Structures are given as C-alpha cells and as structure tokens.
Amino acid sequence: MPDAADSTFYVTTPIYYVNDAPHIGHAYTTVVTDFIARWHRQRQEDVWFLTGTDEHGQKVLRTAEANKTDARTWADRLVENAWKPVLETIDASNDDFIRTTEDRHVERVKEFIQGLYDAGEIFEGSYEGAYCVACEEYKQPGDLIEGTGEFAGQQLCPIHGRPVEILAEKNYFFRMSQYTDKLLEFYERNPDFVQPESARNEVVSFVKQGLQDLSISRSTFDWGVTVPWDESHVIYVWIDALLNYATAVGYGADDEKFRRTWPADIHFVGKDILRFHAVIWPAMLMAAGVPLPRKVFAHGWLLVGGEKMSKSKLTGIAPAEITDTFGSDAFRYYFLRAIAFGSDGSFSWEDIAARYQAELANGFGNLASRVAAMVNKYFDGSLPAPAASTEAEEALAAVAERAVAEADAAVERVAPHDALAAVWSLVEAANGYITEQQPWAVAKDESQRERLATILYSSAEALRVLAVLLNAAMPKACARLWESLGAAEALGALAEQPLADAGRWGQLVPGAPVTKGDALFPRLDA
Ligand code: ME8
C-alpha cells in the first residue's frame, strides 16, 4: 500500500455547463471522482474533492435568452435547483463547489490573463473559422462531417451532429504554437499524465501535428470575464473554465492553501474534453510558470440504446429517475462496477435491475441479513466469541486480506470496476463459507456451540471487512451495516477505519450488539 501523500490528494470533476440539468453522464463522472476521493480519505490521506459549474459563454447565454431571462438569473436557477441537488441525490462528498461567476474566480482569471499578456504570451490578431457553440470550440476543417437529411449541404460538429457557424473575429491569441515541443517532451517524461493509453496516444498524435495559436477572447457577446486591458472583449469560456481548478484552491489568493493542494492529482473528464485538459490547460500553466497536474483521466461515453446519451437526442436520463427506484448506493455501485473505466459503457434498465438483484439483494445484502438474523436467533443478538479456527476460517481470512490488497491496487491504477470485482471475491467467499459450514445445522447440536460461535463470528468479520471496502462505493448501506454489526463503539466511525488495516482478522469485539435492521437492498418485485 502506498504511503499517505505528504500533501493533499486533489481530485476534480469537470465543471459542468448550466445550459441544462444534469443527466447520468454527468453523474457518472462525479460518482467515479467521489469514489476515488472517499477511497483516498479511507487511506487516511488529506483529500480535496472539487466540482462545480461552468457558467459563462455563448451556450449558456443562448439558453438563457431562449428561456427569456438573463444569463445570471438562469445560472443561479440551474445551480440551485438542478446541479447542487443532484450532488445529494448521488451522495457526492465534494469539499467545495465552484461557480465561474463567483468573484473568487473572476478576479483571479483576470490576473492570470493579464500576467500572460504582460509576459508577451498573448497578441492581437484575427481569425475566421467554423465554431461549434455546443462544444464552445473552433473546429478544424478536417474535423467536420458532411450533413445529411435536414442538415444536407451543411458542415456538422462530429460530437454534436449539429451545424457549425462561421465566425470571423478580431481577438486576442495565446501563443500556444510555442508549446508544441515542450508538451511533447512533457508527455514523454510523464507517460502516465494522460490516461488511458488510447487517450494518451490521441493527444500525442494531435500535438505532433503542431499546435496553432489559440484565440482566447470574444467580442460579439459580453457574458464572460472581461479582458482586463480591453473591455470590449470577454475571455474565451474554456480559458476561464480551466482556471477553476486553480482558483478554487487559492491560486493568487491563498498561497499557503494553493501550495498544499496544487497540483491536482487527477482531473477526471469525459473524452469529449480531453484536448482542453491535456493540451490547452498544461500549455497555459507552462506559460504562467505553474506546475502541471499529475494526471488527466478521460473516460468513455455512457451509451443509451447504443448512442452517446444526450438531452438533445432525448436519451438523457436524470439520476433521480434511477435512484428513486434503486437508491443512491445501487446507482453508484452499478456505474462503478458495470463499466470498465475508460471505455464506453451501455446503460440499460434491465442491466441495472439484474445486477441489483443478483449482486446487491441476493449477494451482499443477503449475506448481511442472514448473519444478523442468526446472531439474533442463536446468541440473542450478542456477537459470540470465536473458538479455535479451522482451515475454512483461515481461508476466508486470506480471501479478505487479498481483497483489500487487490482493491487498493486497482484504485491506484484508477480501475474502480476491478476494485469492486476484487471486493466481490470476498462477498462470494463469505456466502460460500456460510453455505458450506451450515450454521443452522450446527445449531441443532448443543455440544457444537463453540463451533457455531466461530462460524458466526467469522461471517461477521467478513462483513466488517466488506463495510470498510465498500464504504467508498456505497456509503449509506455500509453505514447501516456498520451500525448493525455494533462495530462503532469498539472500533470507531466507519469512515475512519484505516484501509491498510482492514484485512487484519479478528477486530470485532465479542459481546457487541448485532441488530437486524431492514434489508440493505430489498429484493425487487418481479
Ligand atoms: O464540457 N457519457 O461541460 P458539460 C459520459 N463545461 N460522460 C458524460 C456524458 C456521457 N454521455 N455526457 C456528459 C463541459 N458527460 C465543460 C467542462 S471543465 C474545465 C469544463 C460528462 O456540461 C463527461 O465528464 O458538457 C463530460 O466530459 C462532461 O460531462 C461534459 O460536461
């Protein structure tokens, strides 16, 4: 197990556009980031988990106008009624929430950009090109696709499938072309900076073609951060947005906090915004002399019906539609377990229902309820003291220890699906152990009380290890399990159980009150 870092483990989600309400694609990124944050907290590291909203730019402005209101009112409404509530729906444990319209951000963005201007990194020029408002990005001619059907004769954005607009503007440019070689050198020296491998390859081959200077201001609308030396321009929304990762942890304002927290350990993003994070953002930081983040991890698409899920194509699903039926723990578990992190993955109601029933209700949940029920039935709800172990107990303890090590190694390579698969080896071993040991049969023989005690104590120990290992994925269910094991009094709060110590067998204290509560995961009706 790696040593706790000497500085803060800092993880981020993208800051999401407030043009619309969150769907499960956004929740997916946030759940994975939250899982990683909680895991590292349980490793007893100092963790900072940031999320927030991206509120400037043309896309948000146009949505506000279409809804007959101003951008600020619209953003306030979406943040309070949609983006902040969804964090509760999915049990996110973020330490901060940044909005790009806050002064703590806006003022620092102005200073950052002024610094680049003063250093000669920014010049005035003009540009004409194809702009996708949904991406908030100029596209290269080679990126575009030919429209068909209603869009016949038009050029479309390859991500949104919607026509681009030709924009011609006089504006300010960042000398990004100067960073081509520096970035290639950086990727070379830091082979894990962009992950997974496919994302790294894409970024490297993109940068190898040579970077162009980047237009960093707009003058045709004013919903943005004003360019400090030319008030007729606002700063390009992506430059403004990327800086959130620094401004939120004290860049230019609280040096002590910034030094402690920066650089970010992992920026989690979808692959749609990989280049912004793996090319533009490091180039900006190099230009300003600020250390670069340690890792950008770009995950795949969540597909619904085989297509990238999106509100505009009416495949968008709100997280609450799923949590209302399955609960937040099952929502989190499903997305962490069912999708190989980094690859695309399909969501379907059948799939989540099948996993819920098999893995949560019949697997983990049933294990917890049968152990609690038997301790109540045979030992009046008081955890019995174990007698001598047999090979079966030693084998179960060994599975537990291995599950801890394998899950931790999987989290280290940012593979939550593998981490949960490793933990499930213990769920299965514990259920198998009980089936083989048949405590209900042993209970019939009064002379076997000690054997019965050992079986139930060992089963409860497996549950203790599972509560610690699954807490990052399913905090609510694990808190209830911890309570039902009567573990808090002797061992302290679940969230404070050190991961490194979780596999040490025999921590539960005999005599602890074991209670039968409601099922952790009630079975679904047919
Ligand atoms: O791009 N599958 O915000 P955004 C998986 N404001 N993930 C998905 C997804 C899907 N179908 N749909 C969305 C922006 N996501 C900028 C970011 S950061 C400085 C600025 C997730 O609201 C995924 O993480 O369009 C993707 O990168 C992000 O939402 C895009 O959110």
TrEMBL record:
Keywords for this protein: Aminoacyl-tRNA synthetase, ATP-binding, Cytoplasm, Ligase, Metal-binding, Nucleotide-binding, Protein biosynthesis, Zinc
One example of a Gene Ontology biological process annotation: methionyl-tRNA aminoacylation
Catalytic reaction list: tRNA(Met) + L-methionine + ATP = L-methionyl-tRNA(Met) + AMP + diphosphate
InterPro entries: Anticodon_Met, Met-tRNA_synth, Met-tRNA_synth_2, Methionyl/Leucyl_tRNA_Synth, MetRS_core, Rossmann-like_a/b/a_fold, tRNAsynth_Ia_anticodon-bd
Location relative to the cell: Cytoplasm
Family in the record: Belongs to the class-I aminoacyl-tRNA synthetase family. MetG type 2A subfamily.
Residue intervals of the Methionyl/Leucyl tRNA synthetase domain: 9-371
Source organism (scientific name): Phytoactinopolyspora alkaliphila
GO molecular function: ATP binding; metal ion binding; methionine-tRNA ligase activity
Full protein name: Methionine--tRNA ligase
Enzyme Commission number(s) of this protein: 6.1.1.10
Gene Ontology annotations for the cellular component aspect, listed alphabetically: cytoplasm
Subunit structure: Monomer.
Cofactor dependence: Zn(2+)
Residues noted as binding Zn(2+) in the record, renumbered to the chain: C132, C135, C157, H160
Span of domain Methionyl-tRNA synthetase anticodon-binding: 384-523
Encoding gene per record: metG
Protein's job: Is required not only for elongation of protein synthesis but also for the initiation of all mRNA translation through initiator tRNA(fMet) aminoacylation.
Bound cofactor: record note: Binds 1 zinc ion per subunit.
Motif ('KMSKS' region): 308-312
Main location per the UniProt record: cytoplasm
Placement of sequence motif 'HIGH' region: 16-26
